[in-house]
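Many introductory courses stop at the sequence. We go one step further.
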Amino acid sequence: MTLNSRNRIIKISLAIVIFYIVSVVAALLLLFFFGNKPELPDFSYIWGIAGISYVAIFVPVSLFSIFFHFEKTHSPEIFYFAAFVAGSFCELFRILIFLFNLWDGYSVFLNYIGRAVYSGRVFSLLAFLFAMLTNEETQVQDCDKTLLVILGVSLLFSGIVPLNTGTVKSYAMISIGYNRTFTIIVILSSITALVSGLIYKKGKRAFAFLTLYSGYWLLAYSDSPVLLGLGIVLLSGGTALYLRALHSYYLWQ
């Protein structure tokens, strides 16, 4: 994939993200003033909504930072980090549960939301893994092919995973089948990514990416102020460290 193609994809992704966020905010304002006001089943659900709201800030800010600071830097690691951010965007579909008051469950719309969110989680995990497995410039041209593989795997698993739309969890998400299995896969993939990063002599960036990924994971299941706060700190701090480490590394290349 050429540098211009990557930058074009990032700009298009940023435009889509901003359009979605503005549309949701506009819909919420209209419902609050002119329609049926969205409600929460319980106050504890506010932490899940807050987590989604923070991801809504993280995604466009990260995409803009990638484009602004690395516009002329051709690196697979930057490409896969942008892919990770794009995958985390799927978490924003959870806000539709609040928007349309789908807390009672048993809605076809919940099925689509659940599969979209799950595909984003698989996509983000694979992007994180490939960011550490790639060996810098030698695999730059393979990024587009790898991205198609990641997208295909994400859509495949999101299409076959069983969902329980009967109950909406306090973190604004329905139950997903084989959740423990997926958690084990996440842990093993994170260890693999970290070890790979150390092998390829990018340990600092690997630790930073693992930190921000951990924050993202906590926000995906945020149902308490502790998880919310810890997730925000890890995601923000890890992202700052990772982008700084990338900038320092490529500054001397």
